[in-house]
Specification:
mainly beta; Immunoglobulin-like; two-stranded antiparallel ribbon; 16 strands; 7% helix; globular
């Protein structure tokens, strides 16, 4: 069964201050990123996510109960997925591509628009890298800023909160119009490749192949 997430309209605009239990987030539904790939080690961080929207765009927040936290990438479009990282992949229209918002615990982001995720030597069969002037419109608040090095081995809770203006998505998929009552496809991820306990997890299970770029397996997000 394809999982579904109900995106409520924001009762109050989130402040992007990392407060999971703030008034702005209490009414939002909570999902868990709990499908771990077999290649993951014994460390399975507990990861939850919430999302709301308003007329301007999407707001999201991840809360991670983690340890073995390492973060070495600080630049836009760097390999943040190798760090303690959370991700939101979203496909607003069935006949267009998807965007992969990959954000590490220090707030750095990797962002592309992907139309054909078939793997090639230089990435994907058809994609484009989102330039800084567009990616910079995505605001983020991270528990850690900059590098986390050496690795934090003891238990720690961290959050990553973000705002995606609809105009960022519309640059690539066209006008979205009124999103109320519409359905999009999406997936949420938690990963860490370069720490001492690598792991990869998804909200919607997408099979045994270690590849988050499987849009046919995305779940459904439905707007209030």
């Amino acid at each position: 069964m394809t999982p579904e997430y109900f995106v409520r309209r924001a009762v109050q605009r989130p402040l992007l201050d990392g407060q999971w239990n703030s008034v702005a987030w209490r009414a939002a539904e909570t999902l868990e990123v709990a499908h771990f790939y077999p290649k993951s080690g014994g460390h399975h961080p507990v990861t939850h996510a919430r999302m709301v929207y308003d007329e301007a765009g999407l707001y999201g927040i991840f809360r991670v109960e983690d340890c073995y936290v390492l973060c070495t990438h600080t630049e836009y479009q760097s390999a943040v997925y190798k760090d303690a990282c959370v991700e939101f992949f979203v496909k607003p229209k069935p006949d267009r591509g998807y965007m992969n918002f990959e954000m590490n615990c220090g707030g750095a982001m990797l962002l592309r628009y992907i139309e054909d995720p078939t793997r090639t030597a230089d990435g994907f069969a058809k994609y484009c890298t989102v330039p800084a002037e567009i990616g910079g419109l995505v605001r983020r608040h991270a528990t850690f800023y900059g590098k986390v090095e050496p690795e934090i081995v003891e238990p720690v809770v961290w959050t990553l909160e973000y705002h995606i203006p609809f105009r960022v998505l519309e640059t690539y998929v066209g006008a979205l119009g009124d999103v109320r009552g519409t359905e999009w496809r999406a997936n949420f991820h938690k990963c860490a490749e370069n720490n001492s306990h690598p792991h990869w997890a998804t909200w919607t299970a997408v099979g045994e192949r270690l590849d988050f770029h499987q849009p046919d397996g995305f779940g459904v997000i439905r707007f209030e």
